[in-house]
Structure formats: C-alpha cells, structure tokens
Amino acid sequence: MSRLDPAFNDLKQQYLLPPPGRDANLGILASDPICRDSQQMAGQSNAIFPPLQASPGDFIALQYQENGHVTLPENTPHKPRNSTIFIYGTSSPSKDDRLLSIHRVWNACGTGGDQRGVLLATRSFDDGQCYQINNGSISLARQKIYSKVPTDPQGADLWCQNDLRLPTNIHDNYTLYWVWEWPTIPTGMVPQGRMEVYTTCIDIQIQPGIQNGMVLFENGQDLNFAGIQEQMLANKMP
To answer: What top-level branch of life does the organism fall under (predicted)?
Structure first.
C-alpha cells in the first residue's frame, strides 16, 4: 500500500515482536515468524506495486520514515539514541522461517544456522542525514545541510535508507529479511531492559547479467534519489 493512499496507516504494514498484548516476561518466542502473515509466502505480486527487479551485484536502497526516532529522541528517553538494522538474504525462503532461527544466527559467510542465507549488511537506523519536518534541533539542522525539493512520496521529509549491494551469485528470486532492533534500555521500571524488534520482508526478481564494476560516488545528486556515500563505498566490490 502506498503512503499516499488515504487509507494508509503504519499498523497495516508494521510487524512488531514481541507482539502487542503478549506477557512482557515471555519476550520473543522461538515460534515467532520473521515475517508478518501477509509477507510469509514468497513470490507475491501486486499490480500497483510489482516486485523489485535487480541484477546480481546491483545496489538497492531500502527506505523508511524515521518517525521522530532520529530527530526527536527526547520523546523516547528509554530508548538508545541510535539502533541497528540487520539485513539478511536468501534464495531459499520458507513460510516457516522464524526470527530466532535467523536473526543473529545467519552470518556473512553463510555458515550460520541452517546455512540457507547470509547476513548482507548491518546499518544504523539513523543514516546520518534523514529527517522529518519538525521544530527539533536535529531536524532544523539537517533541513539546512540536506535541503531538497519536496518530491512524492517523501514530500518535504528526507527518508532514511539502507544501501546495500546484492550478491553476484544469486538468480531467479531473492528474499530479504529486514530486522530492526530497538530495545528498551534498563531502567528502574525495566531493570533487565526489553527487546523490541520490527521486521519487514521483500522479494526481488533477479534479472540477467552481473553488475560487478567498481563504484564511484557522484556528489551533488538530488537527495530524493541519491544513495548514502558511506554505505555505497563500503560495498564497492561484490
């Protein structure tokens, strides 16, 4: 569903673990799927939003709103100032994939867990330049440094993004698992802290050809469409 759709709301897309209503002492269970129910079957198609198409070795950008977690940290004092996103990839997804069988189990070498997938990248939730329009000091500073012309679907905001390069040895279809850890830090009310995880899952249709050239970053691009230089150059070669 597009963010421009009048019926859009975050809860239609959001997947939180532990789920709302579960006893906090239980935490995340071994039986918890890594994808929400609407994303568990690979190869789903939507006429309005067809699957992403990319070639092996291509760069892709995963974008999201910061929702004040970056620019208004005072709203969530019990949360860390930054947090980490883990991006996993597999050519053999299963509707039965579980978070705890993959997250912090699959590794970059492909030798973790059942070895069906790899850890493609870890990224900071705050990419260093994203913001939503508000009067907070972080947003105001970034609006000046990273100014841009409002463009749909971002509007005046500058969305956060995770840039990564796809492996060169993939074909047909490839699935990504995006996992954001946003824990509650230990406090008097929650002395052990509490894990809070959000995930989303995406299928990519892999096209012929391999993109294995070197990468040079071009400055001065329209920020509505530009990648993050640090992230792009961290993956110069497949």
So the answer is: Eukaryota
Global pTM value: 0.93
Q: For residues 177 and 199, give the distance between their C-alpha atoms in angstroms, rounded to a whole number.
A: 7
d(CA 44, CA 198): 21
Give the pLDDT confidence of 150-176 residue by residue, as tens digits: 999 999 999 999 999 999 999 999 999
Contacts of 194 (CB under 8 A, 6+ apart): 24, 27, 183, 184
3-state SS, one letter per residue, for the chain? CCCCCCCCCHHHCCCEECCCCCCCCCCCCCCCECCCHHHCCCCCCCCCCCCEEECCCCEEEEEECCCCCCCCHHHCCCCCCCCEEEEEEECCCCCCCEHHHHCCCCCCCCCCCCCCEEEEEEEECCCCCCECCCCCHHHHHHHHHCCCCCECCCECCECEEEEEECCCCCCCEEEEEEEEECCECCCCCCCCCECCEEEEEEEEEECCCCCCCCCCCCCCCCCCCCCCHHHHHCCCCC
User: In this predicted model, what pLDDT tens digit does every residue of 69-95 receive, in sequence order?
Assistant: 999 999 999 999 889 999 999 999 999
